[in-house]
């Protein structure tokens, strides 16, 4: 598997064609929908993220989204940031719910857990390694369950480019089902090594996909879709990568720990849900 990317296929023209949407999703494991979310709502979330970064002292008062940059993602109190970004208002806005319901073809439930990402450019930083808080190739279904009928919803809050990075998807890689995840020392979260899928496990047909995205665009992908972070190495200008991701599932499905527990709550307890997988702490809760 090489790090040359093909574009995500634009599924927006399929949005009102139930069968075509499902056919594409079953075959490729994702839907890329452009300009379907209310841009003002997305902008509001971006501004809330900026407000949090200013309030917590990581950007000067008066900084705008156009001029924003921060020293370090990890220096920011991630739990405190969750008080600023009112993502549930965006995820559950009637106009957003309509998009989820078109994608699923049925009523949905949006997870209470959201990951918020505000990654400055690592261009010019010491060392050539990728920042270790990024994610290696993985399936969200490895970390999240017990039911695997959720889809990850990934949205940019600011435009993404090949320089700012984002998320790369391995086309059709959901079709092989759950894969083994092994410890990769290059990636750590909460001080613990994060498991990932070795690149050798991928077939030539499982091409890595990545395209620039605009606020209002959304990627929805399968619990077994293999995906990874693309680092922010933007320069001239060095831009922030700001994005958020949550999970959406059919309203009638079982609601597991991560679906019901807001991120700041689950971050407190390394023995539950996604944290237990990351830290390696045994748990009976998923
Ligand atoms: O945004 C990223 O860097 C990784 C995204 C990811 O792993 C996810 O949304 O599940
Ligand atoms: Fe993920």
TrEMBL record:
Q: From which residue to which does the signal peptide run?
A: none
Keywords from UniProt, A to Z, are: Dioxygenase, Oxidoreductase
Tell me yes or no: is NADP among this UniProt entry's keywords: no
Q: Which Pfam families match?
A: PhyH (PF05721)
Q: Is-annotated flag, keyword Oxidoreductase? A: yes
Spell out the molecular function terms from Gene Ontology: 2-oxoglutarate-dependent dioxygenase activity; iron ion binding
Q: Which domain of life is it from?
A: Bacteria
Q: Known InterPro entries for this protein?
A: DxPntBtaHylase, Phytyl_CoA_dOase-like
Which NCBIfam families does the record cross-reference, listed alphabetically? DxPntBtaHylase
> By what name is this protein known?
1-deoxypentalenic acid 11-beta-hydroxylase
- Specify the species: Streptomyces alfalfae
């Amino acid at each position: 598997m090489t790090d040359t990317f093909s574009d995500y296929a634009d599924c927006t023209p399929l949005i009102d064609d139930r069968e075509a949407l499902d056919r594409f999703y079953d075959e490729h494991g994702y839907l890329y929908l452009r300009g379907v979310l209310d841009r003002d709502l997305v902008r509001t979330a971006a501004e809330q993220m900026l407000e949090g970064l200013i309030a917590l002292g990581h950007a000067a008062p008066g900084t705008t989204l156009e001029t924003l940059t921060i020293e370090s993602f990890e220096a920011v109190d991630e739990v405190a940031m969750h008080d600023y970004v009112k993502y549930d208002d965006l995820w559950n806005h009637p106009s957003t719910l309509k998009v989820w319901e078109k994608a699923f073809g049925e009523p949905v439930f949006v997870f209470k857990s959201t990951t918020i990402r505000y990654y400055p450019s690592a261009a010019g930083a010491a060392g050539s390694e990728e920042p270790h808080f990024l994610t290696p190739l993985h399936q969200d279904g490895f970390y999240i369950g017990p039911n695997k009928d959720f889809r990850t919803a990934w949205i940019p809050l600011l435009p993404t480019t090949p320089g700012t990075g984002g998320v790369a998807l391995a086309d059709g890689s959901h079709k092989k089902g759950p894969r083994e995840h092994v410890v990769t020392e290059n990636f750590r979260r909460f001080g613990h090594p994060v498991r990932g899928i070795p690149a050798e496990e991928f077939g030539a047909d499982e091409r890595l996909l990545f395209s620039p995205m605009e606020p209002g665009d959304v990627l929805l992908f399968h619990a077994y879709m293999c995906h990874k972070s693309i680092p922010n190495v933007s320069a001239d200008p060095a831009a922030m990568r700001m994005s958020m991701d949550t999970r959406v599932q059919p309203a009638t499905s079982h609601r597991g720990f991560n679906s019901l527990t807001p991120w700041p709550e689950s971050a407190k307890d390394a023995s539950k849900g996604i944290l237990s997988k990351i830290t390696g702490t045994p748990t009976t809760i998923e």
